[in-house]
Specification:
6-stranded mixed sheet, about 20% strand, rod-shaped, alpha+beta, 15 strands, 11 helices, single chain, about 325 residues
Length: about 325
């Protein structure tokens, strides 16, 4: 197979010489062809002689006044001219694609990540890259990026698959236990995370999991989990937060999503001494030798979005 391929592909200076031959055959003028190609007539003449020597046949009749094709030259010209033009068009299209990214980028994003890092850039991205289609799936399921057919994902650092390139989008995050002032006045405040088992908690379940998420805390340089109880189990974090705001029970949410409510006095946090930061949002994608321009455009746009300037260093998560 390799020998057959090598035999069929032009070798050495064939491309340049063939290009010179096509130009002369097209214009039937060495001076005009030399002008178009940007070479001297003598250099062009030498290229044609070398090309005829390589193919072993005379391709052109030359006199001091006229240039014409031999029968062999005419046959060769008819065959190589369309192929050469097609090759030129293909290369031009490739250059255009590099200058103006196009195509579809399949994205998977956690809901909170989409709200923070993707939604704010959608309008400007669509205006800047009209030939790119973003196919975005938004949910909290931890999918296999490659098996799912995705090009890129935006998720927290704790659940990034092995061997992915991961680029940090912002600072670390932390989760807080929060409830309304009325809830705490009626039920008291937990003094330690393990006291939560005696409280009414609004629970959340990862998509695809049977058991609700066990709330995670940090103590003595180690993480530990508490399987809380409560009257409500939800698969949507926004609904869970709304339930906590209604006084259903204690909720557990990323600090950014509850900071305004705490500032307004609608929610009160507790157990902050055990609420340690963890890796925040990352844009991650499979390692690849050459990235498609459309994918690069999306990644750059997400990194340049709100709060994305904290760190621009990529790392491989292993």
């Amino acid at each position: 197979m390799q020998d057959m391929l090598a035999d069929r592909l032009p070798a050495g200076n064939d491309y340049n010489q063939m290009r010179a031959f096509i130009a002369v055959a097209e214009y039937l003028s060495f001076s005009r062809a030399a002008e178009v190609l940007g070479v001297s007539p003598s250099a062009l003449s030498q290229m044609i002689r070398s090309f005829e020597k390589r193919v072993g046949m005379r391709l052109l009749h030359r006199t001091t006044r006229n240039v014409s094709l031999t029968e062999v030259g005419e046959n060769l010209f008819r065959r190589v001219r369309p192929a050469a033009f097609e090759l030129g068009d293909a290369l031009a299209q490739t250059r255009i694609a590099g200058e103006r990214p196009a195509g579809t980028v399949r994205v998977h994003a956690f809901r909170s990540a989409a709200q923070k890092h993707i939604q704010p850039i959608l309008k400007s991205f669509a205006e800047r890259y009209p030939d790119i289609v973003l196919d975005i799936t938004i949910d909290d399921e931890t999918v296999d990026i490659v098996a799912g057919g995705y090009d890129v994902a935006v998720r927290i650092g704790e659940v990034i698959e092995r061997d992915m390139v991961a680029v940090r989008l912002g600072p670390e995050l932390r989760q807080l236990a929060v409830a309304t002032p009325d809830y705490f006045s009626q039920h008291g405040r937990p003094e330690h995370p393990r006291d939560l088992v005696h409280h009414r908690c609004v629970r959340w379940r990862w998509p695809g999991h049977q058991a609700p998420y066990a709330w995670e805390f940090f103590e003595n340089d180690a993480w530990f989990s508490v399987a809380v109880n409560g009257p409500l189990i939800l698969s949507d974090k926004e609904t869970a937060l709304n339930a906590a705001l209604q006084g259903v029970g204690i909720g557990f949410a990323v600090e950014d999503t509850v900071a305004d409510y705490i500032g307004q006095g609608r929610l009160v946090s507790c157990l902050e001494a055990w609420s340690a930061p963890f890796p925040g949002w990352f844009v991650c994608y499979p390692q690849q030798r050459q990235m498609a321009p459309a994918l690069r455009a999306f990644i750059d746009a997400v990194r340049s979005g709100p709060d994305a300037g904290l760190s621009r260093e990529a790392k491989v998560v292993v």
